[in-house]
Amino acid sequence: MAGIYIHIPFCKQKCSYCDFHFSTTFHSYRLDMISSICKEIKFRSNEINEPIETIYFGGGTPSLLDQEELTLLLTSIQSSYTVIDSPEITLEANPDDLTFEKLTNFKSVGINRLSIGLQSFRAEDLKWMNRAHTAEESLNCIPMAQKAGFSNISIDLIYGLPNLPLVEWEKMIDIAIQLNVQHISAYCLTVEGKTALKKWVDTKQISVSNEDEQSDQFDLLVQKLNEVGINQYEISNFSKINFESKHNSSYWKGIHYIGVGPSAHSFNGKSRSWNVSNNTNYIKALSNGQNWFETEILSIENQFNELILTGLRTIYGLNLDKLKNICEPPKTFWKTLNQFIDCNWLKQEINIISLTEEGKLKADHIASELFI
Prior knowledge:
15 helices
């Protein structure tokens, strides 16, 4: 099985913490962009011989698309690839875009999973984030989507926010639980370069939370979600049974996928490619038959390290047999691995290595120490 990711590089406005590729001035070339993405979908049909199991509209803000645009993109995929009978089709959405009519339109074209970027239920957070939606819209869009027939809904939340006491974070978790969604993605606030947030932090206009506060909020999240049967299956992702994101899980399991649209990435196990992060250049390249992407052939070392990084992030763990199929790990790998097991950051069951609860807080560090 394989997956297709479609990057929609449009947003109403720029969030203060975001460094993804998008444009807020897209109206003059919107149709050209959709047409170009359809062209890329067709051009790349020979890259995947396996059936398509998942389709994911990310961004940007895919919920800005209308019914006709989504139909064009999905029809291009259906006509160019073998797609299974009931693929998981996810659309990322912002609460302010969601009306009952639009939700029913999404449903009618085949969208069967929503990933809604709530980020916070507090008005003060949404204000400094420069989010386009209100706290009220955050609360109202979920019941509306459920009424429209969506039974597979994920929400995004951010912890480690400035001036977010643990008690306020607990209230947000409780609200998320009460909304009865199937999936929650929770990310720690990261200060990325070239963002408004980075400038505010550098000029001391905003103070970010410290590691202890972030750790306490993360631990509370895991505990409370686990109590109600929403289990952590990846470092930042939690779901009810059988509602794990199939598309995102394919990334962590090393399943092949292609990414179409400006800045989208692709992976086939041996190489990685990425599209140009410029909307105008992307459209011109597709129109003129020029290359719109770059490719990197992964070395044995990169393949080895990639498997460590992705394997350790999930409950499925790192399969040592798969690692040995790439190359025999050096003695330093086994020494470091045993040290992490001894200090209870990793655990081993037969040939599977996975993170302990304590280790989950140090996942990136552990992975980097095991790299060759």
